[in-house]
Amino acid sequence: MVLESIAVRNYRNLDGLEIAFNSGLNFIVGENNIGKTNFLDLLETVFNKNRFDASDFADISKPIEICLQFLPDELEKEKYANLLSSDGKINIKCTYERGEKQFAYSIDRSDSHGKQDNKTEIIKLLRDFNYLRYDPLRIPADELNFYKNRGVGRFLRYLVSQLISKRDVKLETNSLNGVLKELKENLQNLKPFREFGLEIDIQKDMESQILRLLTLKDENDFDIENAGYGVQFSTLIVLSILENLIDSASVVKQESDDSPSPLKPVSILLGIDEPEVHLHPYMQRNLMRYLQRIIENRDQGFITLIKKLFNIERLNGQAIVVTHSPSILLDDYRTIIRFYKDEQGNTKAVSGKQIVLDEKSRKHLWKKFAYIRETLFSRFVIVVEGDTEIGAITEWAKEVPAYNYDMRNENNQFLDVFRSMDEEDLERYGISVISADGKGSVKPICELLSKFKIKCLGIVDKDNSSNSKSNEENLYVTFFKDFETELVESLFNKNREEKLKNVIMAAAQEINLIMRVPESELLGKKRNPCESHDASEEKNYTIQDISEFEDVDDRKTGYIKILQKNKTVTFGKLLGELLDADEIPDVYRNIILEAKRASISTQKKLREKINESR
């Protein structure tokens, strides 16, 4: 069974939230204090408890209503036939009035045929769905041992019990008799031991003896409680699934006894809060891919184990992962659920599953998604064509204050926060810059981000087009052919040619740059393809040579060629650092200014809505 969607009414700050889920992994992203962890709390209450607390009500005069839509498999359709709607789905409404002792349940059917709602059957479905909540505040050392029947220790204990019950296991303790005798004699010198008849003895229960002997060790032969937190928490998450299956196993066994098929699937929904807390990026992705294989029944080792231990054929698995880490996201936008604030300040969600893009756009995005991931955590995104632009814009942004111009005379306390910034870097505004690695990907990336309710501006090179304006509302076009031409023309127009030369020479002192341009490239000379050509005989011009050309257009071409031969983020950053604020090309100044103002405006409106609601 899969949870397809949920609708929330009157719960904390999630009133009006509606989410459609992917059938496998789902990653919930969004800013802090927007309600992501609240959502996992909600699922915990609905599936594993029977009432909300008074603090859970957004409006205490109204009930909390949670509408869940499930898609059962064929076996589950038979099992819950009385709950099915005409489309083969199960729609459950959970209502809780303040002061009541438990939920009121109902089934929403498009075609009821006189069916009556069976509360017991609904509760059984919710419990059988097996929602497992994991959060990083758990203490692994309290669970990752065999003798404490707590958390995943319960599974480790279960594992030992199952094996002992099938074998005649004995431990030889006669060799301990001498040690035991001396220990008893030593402790009898203490009054409490004499007064209360206390003495040391050996556990008679074989299972208890074995559980005390066993421990988990890492590859360095350290007990797991002394291993790194990354190892502990990765192990804890996986074992938590198995611990949860212990209770499901007895249900499956009971139902299997009455069924011609000895093995049955089990539904499980994992709710995981910030698993990245103790994991470096590689381990984050590795853990997520492993969990994906588990819930999709593609990990043969896990399948073999649950068949052997629990007589469970497979999992109908699903996971909801709350994260603040781009590294943990997989390369598929359809697995992303983004929480955001609408214009009224309400928390809403966009599900990647529901985003429809044409085939060409999807191909672009799958190729670039590794670079797009971080933008899903931003308020605003600037999409550029290449690497040099990224480096330059991030530095230029520090020189472009959003509060100058028409905002500078406003008496607004909210804007004063931005005025007081030591630096105008983009992170303060929640703005990120991403390279589309080509003109063709700028528009698809902007389209995807817009569908995720992330404001976005793109800038593309004019190339050979005669049109320097875009018909797209959120797309800028350079005035000249490309970034390099834009920069050179801008500096020449401002009589900063000498500054351009000095900036390039200064950058060459910091990093390796190609500083020579062949004569054929520089002057556009064409040679006869029938004639032999020796590249070693061709003249190469240095930046000093270029600066001495009499023709201004030749000098421009020379500088442009040098810039084009050195397209890197590092070179872009150096260009951004070494140029002054008034030397930034207008088109890039404008896009930075618009992005910052839009971010401020959004935050200002949200703050006003929050203040109005108080």
Question: Which secondary structure elements does this structure contain, and how are they paired or packed?
Answer:
Elements: E1 2-9, E2 18-20, E3 25-29, H1 36-48, E4 64-71, H2 74-79, E5 90-96, E6 104-107, H3 119-128, E7 131-134, H4 152-164, H5 177-187, H6 191-195, H7 206-213, H8 229-257, E8 264-273, H9 281-295, H10 300-310, E9 312-322, E10 336-341, E11 347-351, H11 359-372, E12 380-384, H12 387-396, H13 413-419, E13 431-435, H14 439-451, E14 455-460, E15 475-477, H15 483-493, H16 497-510, E16 516-518, H17 519-522, E17 540-542, H18 543-547, H19 552-564, H20 569-578, H21 586-613
Parallel strand pairs: 3-9, 3-10, 7-8, 8-9, 12-13, 12-14, 14-15
Antiparallel strand pairs: 1-2, 1-4, 4-5, 5-6, 10-11, 16-17
Helix pairs in contact: 4-8, 11-14, 12-20, 15-19, 16-20
The percentage of residues in β strands lies in 15-25%
Helix content: 40-55%
CATH architectural grouping of the largest domain: 3-Layer(aba) Sandwich
Structural class: alpha/beta
Number of separate domains = 4
User: What characteristic shape results from the CA principal axes?
Assistant: globular
